[in-house]
Specification:
The chain has 269 residues and is mostly beta strands. The chain folds into three domains: 76 residues, Copper binding periplasmic protein CusF (OB fold (Dihydrolipoamide Acetyltransferase, E2P)), CATH 2.40.50.320; 71 residues, Beta Barrel (OB fold (Dihydrolipoamide Acetyltransferase, E2P)), CATH 2.40.50; 76 residues, Copper binding periplasmic protein CusF (OB fold (Dihydrolipoamide Acetyltransferase, E2P), Beta Barrel), CATH 2.40.50. Helices cover 9% and strands 54% of the residues. The protein has a five-stranded mixed beta barrel with strand order 1-2-3-6-5. A five-stranded mixed barrel has the order 7-8-9-11-10. It has a five-stranded mixed beta barrel with strand order 12-13-14-16-15. A hairpin with a 4-residue loop joins strand 1 and strand 2. It starts with a helix and ends in a 17-residue tail after the last strand. The N terminus and C terminus are likely disordered.
Length: 269
């Protein structure tokens, strides 16, 4: 009888625990939007979707945080303008977050203009322009994951911008310009085949010209292959694809590091 009583008591306790867990644990839900405010003292984050729906989430004690630029983080890494996916439970209308994962927002295009003083960047892609404010601590990533500075980003470069939208202003947090560069004198050009060759000392390279290649003439990235002159000293930005050099920017060597600053208000798409 004592054994039976013990078994019955243990079974009752297990059932009670299971019932309690079923009562407290809610089905996981998700919500994706842009962070509008963070209260680290009260452990509350507000997230807005489509400028229509704003939800507040209580950040649970064991809530996990992941970010695009650093992987695992903490609540203090949350800031307005980040796009996040919140995993949460809804207990009688009280939303408790179990996880917050930043979602990357990226835009790839050609640098049409850059203003290092105003910290603005104008990108052009598919006939449209998009303006970004450049954060003071914006990360510049170059070829082979080398760290660069804002001066390394030049007119005509093809870049990928990772950005956030604080106060609905697209703000660059990272600018990646990962093409390799080669400086040399133009030795041959085939306008029909869209290929060019350049030589520097004993090194000669052949390039296939991409359809969206920016040719910088007089500081503007709208030149043509026919504008290039034999023996002209040029800088080529290119990507090596399975042994083929595909050039996406050609600029005179003496002006290749002089950014063009927009003189007219740039439009947003």
């Amino acid at each position: 009888m004592a054994v039976c009583t013990s078994v019955l008591t243990a079974t009752t306790v297990l059932r009670a625990s299971a019932d309690q867990m079923a009562t407290t644990a809610k089905p996981e839900k998700t919500y994706t939007g842009t962070v509008t405010s963070v209260d680290t003292k009260e452990h509350v984050v507000s997230v807005e979707k489509w400028m229509l729906f704003n939800k507040k989430f209580n950040l649970g004690e064991e809530c996990t945080y992941t970010f695009v630029d650093k992987g695992t983080g903490t609540m203090s890494d949350l800031r307005p303008g980040q796009r996040v996916r919140v995993g949460y439970q809804d207990a009688h209308g009280v939303r408790v977050a179990d996880s917050v994962a930043q979602q990357p927002m990226r835009y790839t295009g050609m640098v049409k203009a850059i203003d290092p003083i105003q910290h603005t960047l104008l990108l052009h892609v598919h006939g449209m322009d998009k303006t970004f404010q450049i954060a003071n601590d914006c990360e510049i990533v170059l070829h082979d994951n080398k760290t660069g500075v804002l001066g390394d980003v030049q007119t005509g470069n093809h870049v990928t911008v990772t950005y956030e939208t604080p106060a609905e202003t697209p703000t660059a947090r990272q600018i990646a310009q990962t093409s390799a560069t080669f400086s040399g004198s133009l030795t041959a050009i085939d306008l029909e085949a869209k290929t060019i060759k350049a030589r520097e000392l004993l090194d000669t390279k052949k390039f296939n010209v991409g359809d969206n290649c920016a040719i910088v003439v007089n500081g503007k990235p709208d030149g043509k292959l026919s504008d290039l002159k034999p023996n002209e000293k040029l800088v080529f930005s290119y990507d090596e694809i399975n042994g083929i050099n595909v050039v996406n920017r050609i600029a005179p060597a003496d002006v290749s590091r002089q950014p063009v600053v927009a003189t007219e208000p740039a439009g947003n798409d």
